Amino acid sequence: MTTLYVLRTPPAPGWWNMALDAWLLHRAAEEGLAVLRWYSWSEPTLSLGYFQRFADRTVDTRTAAIGSLPVVRRVSGGGALVHDRELTYSIAIPASDPLAGDRMRLYSLFHRTLIDTLVSWGVAAELYGNVRRNTDEDRKTNVEKSVAIPPGNRREPFLCFERRTDGDVVLYRSRLSFSAGRSFTLRENKLPNHRLREISSDFGLPARSPGTPERTFPKIAGSAQYRQNGGLLQHGSVLLSRSPTVPHLEGIKEITGVDIPIDRLSHLWEERVATAFAATILPYPWNTRDDMGVERIATQRHRQNAWISKR
To answer: Which residues face 38 on adjacent strands?
Structure first.
């Protein structure tokens, strides 16, 4: 990848956000553009994973308020998201890009660059697979569960942030101590417990020992993917603070006490993504064709009740 176009859009309705992601994927597949987009939502909105049932949004009594939210259905799989106090991103890349043929690498790249970015606020995060206690092969979670794979007979939590895959980003319930003058970034794909305890001790983090509950490491970022005509769309969310609609899900602010400005986070993260991609950043060349493309996709799919409640 040599050029990565960046698009920042103001808060918008869910149907428009989903239609624009689909349009950018179309442009990536048909015209070879690689586009990174940063966005948010004009009102709290529930997005369903492609394979989820519309009726399931009201099953959990803890999340009864979800039933009153506007609903959209994503083209990607994974669990439902309440888009409220978060940063949302998407990236669409063409089939000609090597990352399009290695979707797990793209998934990992975004989450690792996010982890590096959060260090700027002293926030300690890591991939869930690196802090997961149990390494038994039969119990390993697979990152592909969050990438448009039907759940089959598996009964998973309805909400994305209550699920775990090895590629998800989780937090320590502590802030980093920089007294030693070192940066905190774990680079191993698989980290033995004894090494995690050493690093935790070095940086004043709570060491995870056998028996430590998973909730000690709450999930704060996840992504999902969708492929079309060889192009690849990946979109995901970073939970910055708790939404009143789902008060049991804490964000970075509640967990660490750090209130991260959404614009600052996206700009710093963007710099690290560009470096990881070895790409030149250019503004996305928006024109009236984009307006028409988004409206067409929204009319055909994302504003249609038949699409939203299709399952």
So the answer is: 8, 89
| pLDDT tens per residue, range 205-264 | 444 444 444 456 899 999 999 998 889 999 999 999 999 999 999 999 999 999 999 999
Name the residue among 70, 63, 54, 7 with its Cα closest to residue 235. 7
Phi/psi for 237 (5° steps) reads -135, 150
Residue 285: Cβ-neighbour burial (10 angstroms; 0-12, 13-18, 19+): exposed
Domains with residue ranges and CATH for the chain: 3-308 (3.30.930.10)
End-to-end CA distance of the chain: 37
Three-state DSSP at 194 gives: helix
Contact 77, 51 (CB under 8 A): yes
Query: Which pLDDT band holds residue 310 (cuts at 50, 70, 90)?
Result: confident
Q: Which two tokens stand for residue 175?
A: 């802030």
What's this model's pTM, rounded to 2 decimal places?
0.81
Q: What per-residue confidence (pLDDT) applies to 154?
A: 55
The 8-class DSSP code of residue 197 comes to H
- CA distances to 178, 193, 200, 299 from 204, in Å: 9, 16, 6, 52
Report d(CA 72, CA 302) in Å as an integer: 7
Is 163 in contact with 107 (CB distance < 8 Å)?
Answer: no
Comparing CA positions, the residue from 154, 8, 136 lying closest to residue 77 is: 154
What is the Cα 26 distance to its own chain's centre?
Answer: 21
CB 112 within 8 A of CB 127: yes
99 three-state secondary structure: helix
Query: Where do the H-state alpha helices sit in 149-261?
Result: 193-202, 252-256
